[in-house]
Amino acid sequence: MHKDQVEGGMKDAKGKLKEGVGKMTDNERLEAEGHADQAEGKIQKTVGNVKEGVRDALKK
After folding, report:
1. pTM, 2 dp
2. pLDDT digits (tens, 9 = 90+) for 2-14
3. Are the beta carbons of 56 and 5 closer than 8 angstroms?
4. Could you tell me which residues come within 8 angstroms of residue 45 by beta carbon, excluding any fewer than 6 positions away?
5. Could you give the CA distance from residue 56 to residue 60 in angstroms, rounded to a whole number?
6. Is residue 3 exposed (0-12), middle (13-18) or buried (19+ Cβ within 10 Å)?
7. Distance (Å, whole) CA 47 – CA 41
8. How far apart are CA 54 and CA 60, in angstroms?
9. Which residue in 5, 9, 13, 14 has the fewest CB atoms around it within 10 Å?
10. How far apart are alpha carbons 59 and 5 in whole angstroms?
11. What residue numbers bound the domain in which 27 lies?
């Protein structure tokens, strides 16, 4: 597992938490930050998946 996959998953989870808190407190800014964190996390996770796939392909 590549570090980008782990870090991306953590950012995604943090974003979901921020979004939830923002919704509960009617804080639109916090909710928007949560959405942004989730998007960033998903992108980083995808980059990690690609790196992992390339590494596996080079081993063969």
Report:
1. 0.86
2. 899 999 999 999 9
3. no
4. 4, 5, 8, 9, 12
5. 7
6. exposed
7. 10
8. 10
9. 13
10. 19
11. 3-59
3-state SS assignment for residue 2: coil
Looking at the 3D structure of the chain, how many domains does it have?
1
Torsion of CA 54, 7, 41, 51, to 10 degrees: -10
Residue 40 CA to its chain's centroid (Å): 5
CB 30 within 8 A of CB 21: yes
pLDDT of 27-60, one tens digit each? 999 999 999 999 999 999 999 999 999 999 998 8
* Degrees to nearest 5, angle at CA 16 with 29 and 27: 25
Place of tokens 């998946």: 49
Q: Under 8 Å CB-to-CB from 48, ≥6 apart: which residues?
A: 1, 2, 3, 4, 5, 6, 7, 8
